[in-house]
Amino acid sequence: MGKLVSSWYKNKTLPESHIFPPETRPGNLIVPRGKNIPVIDLSEAEGRNRTRIVQQILKAGEEYGFFQVVNHGVPEDLIKEGFEVLEEFFEMPDEDKAILYSEDPTNRCRLSTSGVNYAREKVHLWRDNLKHPCHPDLQDCIQLWPQKPKRYREKVAKFSIEAKKLGSRILEIVAEGLGLERGYFGDKLSESMLLSVNHYPPCPDPSSTLRISKHCDPYLITILHQGGVNGLQVFNNGEWIGVEPLHNAFVVNIGNQLQIISNDKLKSVEHRVVTNSNLARTSAAFFIAPSGDCVVEPAKSLMGDAAAYRGFVFKDFLLHYFPNFKNNQVVMERFRS
Fold first, then answer.
1. Cα separation of 151 and 136, whole Å?
2. Contact 288, 327 (CB under 8 A)
3. What are phi and psi of 59, to 5 degrees?
4. Domain span including residue 202
């Protein structure tokens, strides 16, 4: 428990264990002005402008791999209450969180610090993380969740249900844009959902460390709420673009599985999270993914002359991804045809 950044960060300089090599530091944290990922008004998808929204989402997925959605239908009060209880969790005394702390990456519900495998890391990330499953079988998943704060299970369950609905809605639009049949991403391709809550305390030297290293997500899509504080950056055309947190907006990004299914039409793009010297940041990422035994392959109607990838079982992809996640090219090449 003493390894959690939130347990010791106050009134300390950045420890050697969290200082990245010069070539991997974020350095200048000022990102280009006037550049941002697309923002899409999802309310227009239900009316006469649906075709335009479908085209906007497809274009964003092709060019950026990321977009933000507003007017998405998730109640603002529900998001606010969900974040209140997530922040309350990280503010609890260490003794109340100790039961969940684990350095075993196979634990289904665990509180940890830094990356996937703390013991094997040469340099640690400036973050604490709570991760647990939400779907399938929400009621079974809830039994794994924190019992404190008292409202955690109730509020996060409601939040996760709405996030899953939003993800399903976006996947339907993506399927339509790709020319796939309705419901293509239903059942096993989007059966699972994992919640990853990142908590980043203020950092004394943001230019020398990272909250999350550059990576691509291995799942289908990610539904992210930034919690109102800057930090997320997306790599686009050779430079990092800051993703401005918009009021009541969700960030959506294409995962490796969706790139594969689309036969490289949509892009899973590298992103990272930089630190902040003044403000703590808590974010909630809902990872929508295939079931472990689901076979993933390019959609037959999108193969053209050839499939860019061979079929594989999703759990095998994850086994290759985690040891190699810092190099997405290595990850994806393993599964190319």
1. 21
2. no
3. -65, -40
4. 35-333
190/221 Cα distance (integer angstroms)? 9
Residue 270 lies in a domain: yes
Query: Reduced to 3 states, what is the DSSP secondary structure of residue 154?
Result: helix
Q: What angle do CA 254, 258, 264 make, to 5 degrees?
A: 95
Residue recorded with tokens 């061979």: 310
DSSP string, 268-301: ---EEE---SS--EEEEEEEEE--TT-EE---GG
Name the DSSP letter for residue 2. Answer: T
* Longest alpha-carbon distance in the chain: 60
Q: CA 14, CA 2: separation in Å to the nearest integer?
A: 16
135 in a domain, yes or no?
yes
Among the listed residues 245, 274, 215, the one whose alpha carbon sits nearest the alpha carbon of residue 28: 274
* Residue 6 covered by a domain: no
CA quadruple 38, 197, 32, 63: dihedral positive or negative? negative
Total length of the chain:
337
Q: How many domains does the chain divide into?
A: 1
The predicted model scores a pTM of: 0.93
User: Would residue 271 count as lying in a domain?
Assistant: yes
Q: What is the pLDDT of residues 122-175, one digit of tens each?
A: 777 878 899 999 999 999 999 999 999 999 999 999 999 999 999 999 999 999
Which pLDDT score, from 0 to 100, does residue 209 have? 76
Task: Check which CATH number belongs to the domain holding 127 and give it.
Answer: 2.60.120.330
Distance between CA atoms of residues 274 and 206, nearest Å? 7
DSSP string computed for 204-270: S-GGG--SEEEE---SSEEEEE-TT---EEEEETTEEEE-PPPTT-EEEEE-HHHHHHTTTSS----
Helical spans, DSSP H, in the chain: 5-8, 50-63, 76-91, 94-97, 138-142, 152-178, 256-261, 314-324, 328-333
